[in-house]
What does this fold into?
Amino acid sequence: MEKMLAGKICIVTGGGRGIGKATALLFAKEGGKVAISELDAEPANETVTEIKKIGGQAIAVVGDITAPGAPEKLVQATVDAFGPNIDVIANVAGYTWDGFLHKMTDEQWDAILNIHLKAPFRVLRAAAPYIRDNAKKEKEEGIRVMRKIINISSISGTDGNPGQANYSSAKAALIGLTKTLSKEWGMFNVNVNCVAFGWIETRLTKAKEDGAETIEREGKKIALGIPGAGLEAIKSVIPLGRPGTTDEAARAILFFASPLSDYVSGQILKVTGGR
It folds into this structure.
């Protein structure tokens, strides 16, 4: 049986950890050539090594995806490595910097909107010439090639969540971007969809009491994770009674990246265990 992404050129932001890493590995297993964007070199290179061990092709583009010129660098590196026919873009990179609105700083607000909304917009804008030009040529030749954009939202964006005004706002806005781009790029045979996750086990959702990680942004260390009591409360309202795994999360993204979703566009898939 042919692999679902055989020969497809794929970009995965945040591909060194968590859902992004699981997505990059799954794309590679399904035959995709994967360009991984990641803030830190070590996890990025680890993912590339794992992909090469299974016979896949991958490159790492290391750096802050919110930095000026970073999306253009990512797209150019992808084209240089694999060619100009970009087929799949999964905007997965992100983190949380929580706080109640009355205590939230402009820095917190801007940082989260930059990574979850502005960065995906800029990646897509940088890739637009390759996607549009190739689609126009294919149309002239009477060929239909479906391309895929998958943005990652959250039920914080669909339903709101206390302490996450910045994150919820960014993820809600990303849904608007998804729906609009599905209408703008439909004529180019591009499916644009969004996955809204609930609780998936990553470093962002570990119990803080268990020594959750930190991320350094502009010289500040931001503690990741959720208070343990909060996690137990979340578990109690999930009908399946557990968080999802990163592999389960990646499978939902693969659906939107694959031919299985060729007539699905502008949609939001909630992956929440029934929550």
